[in-house]
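User: Sequence recovery, please. Input:
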């Protein structure tokens, strides 16, 4: 793997870690403020929802990178060799196509909010929502590339007794 790819992986992992840490700290502060002082930060809840969206998309990218994404691979447990590799290519390309469609329709979502002036915690809605088309486009690209690469994950099957 090239140095550039390693750096991209490190940046992805670092972003996810920082985002999750910030979410935990902000949610914890919100809980303390509500329970101890009967107050809270009005902007915290919408910001936390936006952060969950970003964490989910970045997490999906990281899962696809490591071949640990969710997959319905029941048939793959009953076939082996070349048939299994062909099924992997077909399913990953199908998932890439679905992600590409989500990216396309995500652009429409962002365009709806682009000129609205609505904001979450002072951040324009369209900026918060931009992760949808960008994330799904990157996910489509990553899944399409992974379709033609050897599997990276050596994670155990969910039902090892079927093997």
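Assistant: Recovered sequence (163 residues):
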């Amino acid at each position: 793997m090239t140095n550039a790819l390693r750096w991209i992986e490190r940046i992805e992992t670092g972003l996810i870690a920082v985002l999750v840490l910030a979410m935990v700290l902000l949610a914890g502060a919100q809980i303390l403020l509500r329970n101890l002082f009967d107050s809270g930060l009005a902007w915290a809840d919408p910001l936390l929802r936006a952060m969950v969206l970003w964490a989910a998309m970045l997490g999906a990218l990281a899962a696809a990178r490591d071949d640990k994404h969710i997959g319905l691979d029941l048939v793959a447990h009953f076939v082996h060799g070349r048939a299994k590799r062909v099924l992997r290519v077909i399913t990953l390309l199908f998932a890439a196509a679905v992600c590409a469609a989500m990216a396309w329709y995500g652009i429409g979502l962002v365009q709806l909010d682009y000129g609205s002036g609505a904001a979450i915690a002072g951040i324009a809605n369209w900026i918060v929502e931009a992760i949808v088309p960008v994330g799904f486009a990157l996910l489509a690209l990553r899944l399409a590339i992974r379709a033609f690469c050897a599997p990276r994950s050596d994670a155990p099957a969910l039902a090892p007794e079927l093997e």
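The CA atoms of residues 76 and 85 lie 9 Å apart.
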